[in-house]
Amino acid sequence: MTHALAIDTTSDYLSLAVLKGERPAGSRYLPCGVKATQIVIQEIDGLLTGAGLTAHDLELIVVAVGPGSFTGTRIGMAAAATFGQVLARPVIGVDTLQLLAAQTEPAADVTFHALLNCARDEVYHAAYRWNGVPVALGPIAMTTFGELHRVVGEAPVVARRFDPAPANGEDPLSRFDPMPLRRPHPDAELLLELGLARYREHPAGPFPLPQPIYLKSEAFRKWRR
Amino acid sequence: MAPLASDPLGLAIDTTFDDTSVAILRGKREVLANLTLSQFKDHEEFGGVVPERASRKHLEAIQPLLAQALTRAGVGFGELDYVAVSTVPGLLGSILVGLTVAKSLAYLLARPLIGINHIEAHPYANVLAHGELPFPALHLVAAGGHTLLIHQTGHFQWSIVGRSVDDAAGECVDKVAKMFGHAMPGGPAVDRLALTHAPAAHRFPRPMLNDPGLDFSFSGLKTAVLYYRRDHGGDLEEGPVLSAFFDAVIEVLIVKTLRAARRFRPKAVTVSGGLAASQKLRAAFEAAAAEAGLRLLYPPPELCTDNAAMVACLAAHRYAAGRFDDLTLDGRPNLLD
């Protein structure tokens, strides 16, 4: 029996989910802007209470490690790391591109791309194939919208943008072939699925504290999956 | 919530700027651990603190530092009676790291959360060093981006009666030190040179000294050094110039503090913040306070710079008064918002 909590504060949404004895036992997906710090602990408390759990019942913490909002990513990771430290429980990190890719479930021979815009003219992207969970075919990369078509080609995509699409003109993300989604949002229930899958691969650990993914400038160049 | 402990064990976190600090305090004065991880080396190549880099370093440092502080204090998480954290002022991204950790701790341990104003905490370094403050007290806080005169009539009852209208004194010293090629923070280098060199004959301006108010200004002084250096480039002797410059900074601080003391008649004057670690400033303040018949308090150098022990000390007073915060506590970058 596994009780687990998933935390994602990498975007403008606070996304939380709790698993009680292998079953989803509640979730939150709330617009919070820059106020994740203000509400995250209270919402976790409400979620656990609603599920009939306390924090001390948790056996696993899953957290989104970016790429995304730098400050937002740190808030979720600071909370998750502290939960792991105080409760002496493993913390599993999941990147947001894999989370995005988990929104869909294509046939095993389909190569598809997850796209996440990170600035007005730039996008994070990675290629995946499905094997129970989305399996990355390479590291997360960052490129311009202008270059993206060359990278993605005609492959289907699952895409997300943090900020609203341009009011005037075409959204560059809409030029690609969108995949059917099994879930409307890359939320923390999906995060739990991915974290749990990774945990079950190596339930005895070790569980090094996950590191945030900051993809920009020199951090982008130095970082490797 | 458990009943208040008579001799509480508190944990405090400070991540307001570029130092990650964790302290554990027994009662109001017994420091069991006070660990600070400085980021100066991480920002050296930029000539100043890079906010995004500071936030990243706090996230890297905070969990290991918590573990080390508990080990140093010989206590476990479960023994803590409260969790305190600095929430204002500072770099918001950095504050949010410490705040989120502190909230998580308070929630998991079911202990009170106490949000602390970092500036209000600086004078409490004197409580750790000397015992309870006599009120009313007048505080000169010369810390990082702030130079403030604070009139305090009781715990949690204080008002700012003077402040820098532009650069803070410490900021001015750092920038002038940088002009002469010294790494951040420049205060120790300027203090060392000022102690070992007689001041140059040139008299740098004492900004706002003739203004009857209690506010400070240091931007013009910095510019005066810049122009002096430009005009005397090749012949310049660093030590005497920096000594003369530092004399100007110290004189302004002392004159304004004594002016405030005459107005508010405090039972003690305290000096705290990074600049209070300066030996030259301390000696000058001691002489001035003795002549004015004032009781002067300043902390040991290790408690002048940012540290979580002073935060814990103020938090212990808040704990005793039952003044807690809830889990929606937020951080603020600006002191005066």
What's the story with the biggest beta sheet of chain B?
A: 5 strands, mixed
Helical/strand content category of chain A: alpha/beta
Strand content of chain A: 25-35%
Give the C-alpha Rg of chain B: 20 Å
So how many helices of chain B? 11
CATH classification class of the largest domain in chain A: Alpha Beta
- Report the order of strands and helices of chain B: EEEHHEHEHHEEEHHHHEHEH
Main beta-sheet annotation of chain A: 6 strands, mixed
Annotated CATH topology of the largest domain in chain A: Nucleotidyltransferase, domain 5
**What is the C-alpha radius of gyration of chain A, as a whole number of Å?**
17 Å
Descriptive notes:
The complex is a heterodimer of chains A (225) and B (337). Chain A is an alpha/beta fold. Chain A folds into 2 domains: 4-96 and 184-219, Nucleotidyltransferase, domain 5 (2-Layer Sandwich), CATH 3.30.420; 97-178, Nucleotidyltransferase, domain 5 (2-Layer Sandwich), CATH 3.30.420.200. Chain A is built from 6 helices and 11 strands. In chain A, strands 6, 7, 8, 9, 10 and 11 form a 6-stranded mixed sheet that branches. Chain A has a 5-stranded mixed sheet with strand order 3-2-1-4-5, with helices on both faces. In chain A, helix 1 crosses helix 2 (70-87). The radius of gyration of chain A is 17 Å and the shape is globular. In chain B, strand 1 and strand 2 (19-26) form a beta hairpin. The longest helix of chain B has 27 residues, at 238-264. The two termini of chain B are 31 Å apart. The interface between A and B is medium-sized, with 27 and 27 residues.
Short description:
Chain A has 225 residues and is α/β, with parallel strands linked by helices. Helix content of chain A is 30%, strand content 28%.
Any chance you could write out the topology, listing elements then pairs?
The complex is a heterodimer of chains A (225) and B (337).
Chain A: E1 4-8, E2 13-20, E3 23-31, H1 36-50, E4 60-64, H2 70-87, E5 91-94, H3 96-101, E6 112-117, E7 122-131, E8 133-136, E9 141-144, H4 145-152, E10 156-161, E11 177-178, H5 188-201, H6 217-222
Parallel strand pairs in A: 1-4, 4-5, 6-10, 10-11
Antiparallel strand pairs in A: 1-2, 2-3, 6-7, 7-8, 7-9
Chain B: E1 9-14, E2 19-26, E3 30-38, H1 40-43, H2 51-73, E4 82-88, H3 92-109, E5 113-117, H4 118-121, H5 125-130, E6 137-143, E7 146-154, E8 157-163, H6 169-179, H7 187-196, H8 219-231, H9 238-264, E9 268-272, H10 279-292, E10 296-297, H11 308-320
Helix pairs in contact in B: 2-3, 6-8, 6-9, 7-9, 9-10
